Amino acid sequence: MKSSRELQSMHKGRRPQTRRARKAGQLFSGLLAMNVVFLGCAFISSMIFNRVAITLHDVKIFFSILKILSLCWIIYYLLCTSRKPHAVLYRDSHAGPVWVQGSLVLFGACTILLHVFGIGYNISHIHCKSQLEILFPCIEIIFICIQVWNVLFSGIQSLGHIDGRCGLMLTMATDLLLWLLAVTNDSVHKEIESALKGNGNSSCTCPNTTACRVFQKGYVLLYPFNMEYCLIGSSMLYVMWKNVGRRIPPHHAIHAKPKFKLRGVIYGLLLGISALLLGICIFLTYQIQATSSAPNQEALVLYYSYYVVLLPMMAVGAVAGTVIHGLEERELDTLKNPTRSLDVILLMGAALGQIGISYFSIVAIVATNPGDLLDRLILTYAVSLIIQHITQNIFIIEGLHRQPLVEDPDARLAGPHTQHSGPSGEETVGSHTSQEPTPVYPLEIRQEIRRVSHAYSHTFGRLNWKRKALKEISIFLVLCNIILWIMPTFGMHPAFENGLEKSFYGYSTWFAIVNFGLPLGVFYRMHSVGGLLEVYVSS
Known about the structure:
Blueprint: H1 4-49, H2 56-79, H3 98-124, H4 132-153, H5 163-184, H6 187-197, H7 209-242, H8 267-292, H9 297-327, H10 338-368, H11 373-400, E1 419-421, E2 427-429, H12 443-462, H13 464-489, H14 494-497, H15 500-505, H16 507-538
Antiparallel strand pairs: 1-2
Helix pairs in contact: 1-2, 1-5, 2-4, 2-5, 3-4, 3-7, 5-7, 5-16, 7-16, 8-9, 8-13, 9-11, 9-13, 10-11, 10-16, 11-16, 13-16
């Protein structure tokens, strides 16, 4: 038997080796991802600037090779690495919150449906299209199905530092390049727009007009979901890459958070439901007009008027919530939290999408100096959107960095039946309800426990109105972000239809700008809902 000192020295000797392996894995996988992304960007840029030398077929062949390599690594992991006798599968809780998993499944399913419509559209034009146009989306469907299964149902932290990280980085780089291709590729949209206007190639007509219109409409409607899936998949793979080989000690285990309850929330819930229902009515009106013909000016005025009213209300609520955060006596959570850091980065990065589109709109409107009502509404909408994003980000980030209002750990020492105020101002029973003997502490410790418990309860009672206000504001912003997510996600894109920016920047340039910012804006709304729910339950 080895002595404890020998075991400790062996354990200390393994630590530098583990650190070196982790650093080496991060270095090699990071370099792999960087080179793959740069090579993919070179292919896409070459296609954009010289469509004769590098065609879309060449780019899709390159992307298919990346997908096949990623699939080979995922299958190798599922069939070989995870089945080894010494493999310990850890579920990556940081990369798998319920709302993130649901989003990945939702957008993955919509992306698969998008490619099904694409296959149908290509089959209807098989007489004038290459058969590879059918093969490419089939590979993409297989890639999405296996990737979603791997992310949701496999333990990734048991992977080796080099092979695991390189595989994750290769898959993440593939998702990023697929997103970039979806942002810049307007060939299908141009083809559909030309066909609808009757300017398409007469030698490549669809024999079944009804079926082609269904495929076209479904493809255009579901197109943003593809970009959304790539962004979510990339972010989850990044968190998993950070957590490869990471072990969470027992004393660092994640504690259960307070449950979501709507008790006591009235005004924010009513205002949010009103905004949600009104937005659905405007959305349906817009879609009905869009199906019959292009949306008229009245529909666009109604849409932008709704935003011009709602966005300032959301900004005022976020500012009020930030002020209340400053008045609270809760301490900041300064512990290192990779999930929270990624949430903040994604929140700030995703906000750049709509902010960028807004600034482009402002420049176009001011430069052309139009004077009608619609253009003034678009200008007000763009300015309001920038302010709302900034104020909401500050409110969410402040809330995420606050200590949650949970049970005081010192109060547990007072006995198994100690009660105190919980996050909602209600009394909760301490978690130690087993029949263990109550420890007897000296008089000084018991007096200190009483003093801390009394101060804790007094603080909860005094801050009750602040917590209630934070919950009202959070639930109002949650419902508003939901309707602002529904509108662009399900085909409401007035930035394409109003015509001002399109005529100012040109079709291709404005298409790239909107396709870059719109998926980020949709991702921002969805990510904001998750952050606001965390602020709500921790208030």
